[in-house]
């Protein structure tokens, strides 16, 4: 008999293709706004892109705020709030990776501004109702309907120049959303189908884009997979893998996407020991017996990050990381204690192929 489920429905409008950046103006109009503030991260490339978008939007552009910062510190949000207020716009266009999209969400949560997200990485924040913010060095996460962007424009062209190492780490970050969705207690058949789509599309496209980074077909498949994974993250709950990534990023400042990438084979193998049948779609996507082993082999072949020790984490930090990871209980398909998490972190730190245990 089919497992009982609730499908909450999808609310984010998605425009996908090549050259779709040009459609930001009409999408803004559809949302009922005359003007929007453009958000991005500081830097020559991102600011040039934001200026090109502003030129496209013409009078609909209410200015550019190029001050998005990773992990959405409240100070940066405060500066952006002033810019939004001064601009008089009722909407934002977040053009960039998860950091920029996070800033758009922080503004929407405070002002009710509508958001158009235009992601340029595969991190997957764009369709979720999740906002992570940092205050006094501590990152807290909340969910709410006002946080989810109204519209997402995926423009494959924007990803053609995403450097291969960033692309791979970011894709593994996305794949982690799909992996944990497979065993989420609130999973539903639509999300599971999207996860299978994502695994197949990433398996196809990542080796191709590693060889030919500007291959539009490979980039298009990878961006499609990112959308599938973002949708999974936005609908169902995450568990141990996301908790560990959050702890390492928050307490030790390890880079977000790379941390997800380095942890993924180990968290997968750990939970696979308890629920192999739920992780079977991931193993099957790689034609492998083990999902954790397949992810490690895939990462190694591509040159994606493996081994937390390469991310500036000292072996001595693993004890505190294990303490933090078990400080508060949360659901996970495999029960664990501190010793089990410490062993998982050790293996992930060393970067050796995970063994079923
Ligand atoms: P990011 O947004 O910080 O981007 C990484 C770097 O890549 C930046 O320097 C950026 O300028 C650059 N970059 C972005 N797109 C580029 C492109 N196309 N070409 C060249 N350079 C480009 O990193 P990220 O990994 O996309 O996002 C990480 C952040 O997103 C974290 O703060 C994380 O917590 C958050 N996140 C949130 C959710 C959610 O649902 N709330 C989901 C995933 C990630």
Task: Explain what this protein looks like in three dimensions.
There is one protein chain. The model has no long low-confidence stretch (mean pLDDT 97). The chain is globular and about 60 Å long. It has two domains: 13-159, Rossmann fold (3-Layer(aba) Sandwich); 164-350, Dehydroquinate synthase-like, alpha domain (Up-down Bundle). Helix 2 (44-57) links the parallel strand 2 and strand 3. It has a six-stranded parallel sheet with strand order 1-8-5-4-2-3, sandwiched between helices. It has a two-stranded antiparallel sheet with strand order 6-7. 52% of the residues lie in helices and 12% in strands. The chain has 357 residues and is an alpha/beta fold. It has helices spanning 24-30, 44-57, 74-87, 98-111, 164-182, 189-211, 216-235, 240-252, 256-272, 276-285, 291-302, 317-325, 338-350; strands at residues 13-17, 36-39, 61-65, 91-96, 114-119, 130-135, 138-143, 151-155. The site of nicotinamide-adenine-dinucleotide has 30 residues, from helix 2, helix 4, strand 6, helix 5 and helix 9.
Features:
357 residues, alpha/beta, Rossmann fold, Dehydroquinate synthase-like, alpha domain, 2 domains, 6-stranded parallel β-sheet, two-stranded antiparallel sheet, 8 strands, binds nicotinamide-adenine-dinucleotide
> CATH homologous superfamily of the largest domain - what is it?
Dehydroquinate synthase-like - alpha domain
Average of per-residue pLDDT values: 97
Q: Which CATH architecture of the largest domain is right?
A: Up-down Bundle
The DSSP helix count reads 13
Largest sheet: 6 strands, parallel
What is the tally of beta strands?
8
Counted up, domains total 2
Bound molecules: nicotinamide-adenine-dinucleotide
Biggest β-sheet: strands ordered side by side in the sheet: 1-8-5-4-2-3
CATH topology name of the largest domain, in short, is Dehydroquinate synthase-like, alpha domain
Assess the beta-strand content as a share of residues. Answer: 5-15%
As residue ranges, the low-confidence spans are none
How would you sum up the global shape? globular
CATH class of the largest domain: Mainly Alpha
Head-to-tail CA distance between termini: 31 Å
Q: Round the Cα radius of gyration to an integer and report it.
A: 20 Å
Order of helices and strands: EHEHEHEHEEEEHHHHHHHHH
Class inferred from helices and paired strands: alpha/beta
What level of helicity do the residues show?
40-55%
